[in-house]
Amino acid sequence: MSSTAEQINAAIGAHGMWKLRLKTAITSGAKDLDSRTVSQDCECAFGKWLYGPEIDARTRASMPYQVVKRLHQEFHHSAGRVVQAVECGQNQAAKQLMESDFVPRSEKLVRALMKWKGEVA
């Protein structure tokens, strides 16, 4: 079992990699990502932890948890939209979604994660 700070560190790294994965998918037109799966915020390791039994009710009720949970949902929804555009062969639209929607949401999520980590450390 990992501490909350360790889980948050892992999430920051893993979610940072999504930018590279999405850019690669757009550039190559690769269809190895599934938009339905990517859109699910409970499918990644952090999401499984976030919704899993390791987090107590007090933490779930806290503002940092609620903010991160919402931003994590938005992050995955946005990533799913980028992948969906790639799946449809709309790489230019995917690039636009990446810059106008995904990148700002990703940055906001990372800031929230860092703030939460600072509060639990």
Largest sheet: none
Number of strands: 0
Rg, alpha carbons: 15 Å
* Unreliable spans: none
Enter the CATH topology name.
Answer: Four Helix Bundle (Hemerythrin (Met), subunit A)
* Amino- and carboxy-terminal Cα gap: 16 Å
Task: Give me the strand/helix succession.
Answer: HHHHHH
Quickly give the CATH architecture: Up-down Bundle
Percent of residues in beta strands?
A: under 5%
What oligomeric arrangement do these chains adopt?
single chain
How many structural domains can be distinguished in the coordinates? 1
InterPro entries: Chemoreceptor_zinc-bind_dom
Pfam family, one: CZB
Organism: Alteraurantiacibacter palmitatis
Protein name: CZB domain-containing protein
Give a verbal description of the structure.
It is a single chain. By secondary structure, the chain is mainly α. It has a single domain (4-120), classed as Up-down Bundle (Four Helix Bundle (Hemerythrin (Met), subunit A)). The chain has six helices and no strands. The protein has helices at 4-28, 35-38, 45-51, 57-61, 63-87, 91-120. Helix 1 packs parallel to helix 5 (63-87) and helix 5 (63-87) runs antiparallel to helix 6 (91-120). The protein starts with a helix and ends with a helix. The model has no long low-confidence stretch (mean pLDDT 93). Residues 15-83 form the Chemoreceptor zinc-binding domain. This is CZB domain-containing protein. Pfam families: CZB (PF13682). InterPro entries: Chemoreceptor_zinc-bind_dom.
